[in-house]
């Protein structure tokens, strides 16, 4: 461990603002693209689900008509 | 189908057709030049009329203006042929598409690049450039503007099928223009210091050779994508 | 080559391949990212000249390397897409582009945040920063070209062509910018001193590079899966995924 205390760690020898700024934006951007990709998956699967349910309903309606 | 015409005849026919079209509607030739002139007038108004400062900035101003004014004509390069369907005919014909494309790009350069080169003495006068720098400017424009036409045609080919392709095309093409801009302006800069700038010209020439060989292939595959 | 690639030309097989690879990439990423960040931030010794500000290197250098790496893999995918007419390779181009753009943005932002304490300015027209900025433009160009097309089939091919044109231009741009920079600025700024980097800093850097590579791989696979699903929406095998999950 290079730092004596937690506040030392935060201060980064006076360069805290720059170090944490870059690590923070880096984490934000990485998280952002990760979450948006996950969200895309969810959205696509939801639309597939919707389509499947819709087709099932149509099928059902057709059968009811025949009866 | 048998090929009844030589490749050279095909090339010159395409080139001649485009030139004829352009000369019939003069605005196509005159408007980019006027644009170029106006952009160059704006700079002294914006940064002040001091002759030393203008001469220092002239290469950059002239080249940025040249980039922008060649962009103006690019959007039209394939647009009309695309709209009336003749582009489809060219692709379907048994002649190599890269050759017809080469003809069109050369015609574009004659319409936009050559007048620019011919007008440079006037702009040099406006921006207080001396004769040495004027010669360098003319030489770099002579080598650089065909390069701009070739690179730009790739972007034009990619965006011709899109409704609002114009602005997108400039976004795609301008980053690719950067090397041309750097070497051309540095050649002019070097000439104002009375140093030898043949190195920069040689690099521009080399880039032009690469572009003449490879750009038509890229342009024709881009056009095939846009038409299909 | 074709025999080896052929099975993956089928969307379903490609999707399954993504699925099997994804956990490995994800685990490597999470482990290396945790180790790399803690090691880099807390345990690596401070630089004797730049003090603690140099710790930005642990994300700046990996993101810069990966921005180039992602572009070249995008271009390779583009060549495969155009030469062998593989639709999945086109989708890979589109899957990599946003990840590459993000990594490039990180390299730029961290570069600026490092430049402020070291050079005294957020932005200097340093050769590497400038070519990184142009790289970002190229990524954004590929992305906006893809999204401008209504017909996604043509969009994929157009984006592939642009990616290849970009990769041919990239060395020229890089070389010209470097040359322009030495001409205009006189003294060039070097990021490392002439001494080789010490092993106590080298290993955490390596771990971080692996972590970033893993991240780019993971997210690319995820996005590739999405693109495949989006295209194959109406196929029965996608329906079956619903029942299983």
UniProtKB/TrEMBL annotation, chain A:
* Entry keyword Membrane: yes
Asked if the record carries the keyword Cell inner membrane, the reply is yes
Q: How does it sit in the membrane?
A: Single-pass membrane protein
| Record key words, sorted | Cell inner membrane, Cell membrane, Cytochrome c-type biogenesis, Membrane, Transmembrane, Transmembrane helix, Transport
Q: Which spans are transmembrane here?
A: 15-35
Where does it localize?
Cell inner membrane
Q: Which NCBIfam families match?
A: cytochro_ccmD
What is its biological role? Answer: Required for the export of heme to the periplasm for the biogenesis of c-type cytochromes.
Q: Which family does the UniProt entry place this protein in?
A: Belongs to the CcmD/CycX/HelD family.
Q: Which PANTHER family match?
A: HEME EXPORTER PROTEIN D
Please report the name of this protein according to its UniProt entry.
Heme exporter protein D
Q: Which gene encodes it?
A: ccmD
From TrEMBL, chain B:
This chain's protein is named Heme exporter protein B
Signal peptide, first to last residue: none
Q: Would I find Transport among this entry's keywords?
A: yes
Where would you say this protein principally sits, based on its record? membrane
Q: Where in the cell is it found?
A: Cell inner membrane
Q: Which PANTHER family match?
A: CYTOCHROME C BIOGENESIS B-RELATED, HEME EXPORTER PROTEIN B
Residues annotated as transmembrane: 29-47, 106-127, 133-160, 167-188, 200-223
Q: What are the UniProt keywords, alphabetically?
A: Cell inner membrane, Cell membrane, Cytochrome c-type biogenesis, Membrane, Transmembrane, Transmembrane helix, Transport
Annotated membrane topology is: Multi-pass membrane protein
Tell me what organism the protein belongs to.
Pseudoalteromonas haloplanktis (Alteromonas haloplanktis)
Q: What does this protein do?
A: Required for the export of heme to the periplasm for the biogenesis of c-type cytochromes.
| Family recorded in the similarity comment | Belongs to the CcmB/CycW/HelB family.
**Has the keyword Iron been applied to this entry?**
no
Q: Name one Pfam family in it.
A: CcmB
Name of the gene encoding the protein in the UniProt record: ccmB
Write down the InterPro entries for this protein, in alphabetical order: Cyt_c_biogenesis_CcmB, Cyt_c_CcmB_bac
UniProtKB/TrEMBL annotation, chain C:
Alphabetically sorted, this entry's keywords are:
Cell inner membrane, Cell membrane, Cytochrome c-type biogenesis, Membrane, Transmembrane, Transmembrane helix, Transport
Cytochrome c assembly protein domain: residues covered:
7-184
Q: Does the keyword Cell inner membrane apply?
A: yes
Q: Where are the transmembrane segments?
A: 21-44, 56-84, 91-113, 133-149, 161-181, 201-224
Concerning Pfam families, the annotation shows:
Cytochrom_C_asm
Look up and give the membrane topology term: Multi-pass membrane protein
Would I find Cell membrane among this entry's keywords?
yes
Task: Provide the protein's localization.
Answer: Cell inner membrane; Membrane
InterPro entries per record: Cyt_c_assembly, Cyt_c_biogenesis_CcmC, Cyt_c_biogenesis_CcsA/CcmC
- Coarse class of the primary localization is membrane
Family, per the entry?
Belongs to the CcmC/CycZ/HelC family.
Please describe what this protein does.
Answer: Required for the export of heme to the periplasm for the biogenesis of c-type cytochromes.
Matches recorded under PANTHER family: CYTOCHROME B_B6 PROTEIN-RELATED (PTHR30071:SF1), HEME EXPORTER PROTEIN C (PTHR30071)
* Name the UniProt record assigns to this protein: Heme exporter protein C
Q: Which organism is it from?
A: Pseudoalteromonas haloplanktis (Alteromonas haloplanktis)
The gene from which this protein is expressed is ccmC
């Amino acid at each position: 461990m290079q730092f004596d205390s937690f506040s030392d760690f935060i201060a980064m020898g006076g360069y805290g603002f720059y170090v944490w700024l870059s690590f923070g934006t880096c984490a934000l951007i990485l998280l952002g693209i990760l979450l948006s990709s996950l969200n895309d998956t969810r959205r696509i699967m939801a639309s597939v689900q919707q389509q499947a349910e819709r087709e099932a309903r149509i099928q059902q309606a057709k059968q009811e008509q025949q009866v | 189908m048998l090929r009844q015409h030589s490749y050279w005849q095909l090339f010159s026919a395409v080139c001649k057709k485009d030139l004829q079209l352009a000369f019939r509607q003069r605005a196509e030739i005159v408007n980019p030049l006027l644009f170029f002139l106006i952009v160059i007038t704006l700079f002294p108004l914006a940064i002040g009329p001091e002759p030393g400062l203008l001469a220092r900035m002239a290469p950059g101003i002239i080249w940025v203006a040249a980039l922008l004014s060649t962009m103006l004509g690019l959007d039209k390069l394939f647009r009309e042929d695309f709209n009336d369907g003749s582009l489809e005919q060219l692709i379907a014909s048994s002649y190599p598409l890269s050759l017809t494309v080469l003809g069109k790009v050369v015609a574009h350069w004659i319409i936009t690049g050559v007048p620019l080169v011919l007008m440079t003495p006037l702009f040099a006068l406006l921006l207080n450039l001396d004769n040495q720098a004027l010669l360098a400017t003319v030489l770099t424009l002579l080598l650089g503007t065909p390069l701009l036409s070739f690179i730009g045609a790739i972007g034009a080919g990619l965006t011709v099928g899109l409704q609002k392709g114009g602005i997108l095309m400039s976004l795609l093409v301008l980053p690719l223009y950067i090397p041309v801009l750097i070497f051309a302006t540095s050649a002019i800069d070097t000439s104002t210091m009375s140093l030898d700038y043949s190195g920069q010209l040689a690099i521009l020439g080399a880039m032009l050779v690469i572009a003449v060989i490879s750009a038509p292939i890229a342009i024709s595959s881009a056009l095939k994508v846009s038409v299909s | 080559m074709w025999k080896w690639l052929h099975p993956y030309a089928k969307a379903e097989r490609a999707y399954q391949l993504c699925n099997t690879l994804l956990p490995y990439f994800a685990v490597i990423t999470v482990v290396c990212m945790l180790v790399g960040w803690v090691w880099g931030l807390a345990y690596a010794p401070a630089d004797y000249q730049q003090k603690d500000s140099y710790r930005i290197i642990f994300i700046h250098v990996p993101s810069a390397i990966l921005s180039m790496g992602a572009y070249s893999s995008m271009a390779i995918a583009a060549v495969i897409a155009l030469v062998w007419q593989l639709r999945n390779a086109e989708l890979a181009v589109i899957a990599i582009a946003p990840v590459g753009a993000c990594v490039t943005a990180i390299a730029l932002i961290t570069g600026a945040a490092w430049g402020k304490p070291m050079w005294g300015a957020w932005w200097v027209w340093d050769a590497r920063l400038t070519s990184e900025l142009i790289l970002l433009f190229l990524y954004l160009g590929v992305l906006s070209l893809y999204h401008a097309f209504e017909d996604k089939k043509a969009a994929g091919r157009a984006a592939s062509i642009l990616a290849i044109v970009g990769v041919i231009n990239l060395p020229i741009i890089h070389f010209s910018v470097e040359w322009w920079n030495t001409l205009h600025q006189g003294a060039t700024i070097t990021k490392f001193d002439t001494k080789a980097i010490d092993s106590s800093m080298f290993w955490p850097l390596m771990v971080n590079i692996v972590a970033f590579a893993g991240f780019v791989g993971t997210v690319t696979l995820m996005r590739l899966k999405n693109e495949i699903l989006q295209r194959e929406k109406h196929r029965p095998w996608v329906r079956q995924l619903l029942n299983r999950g």
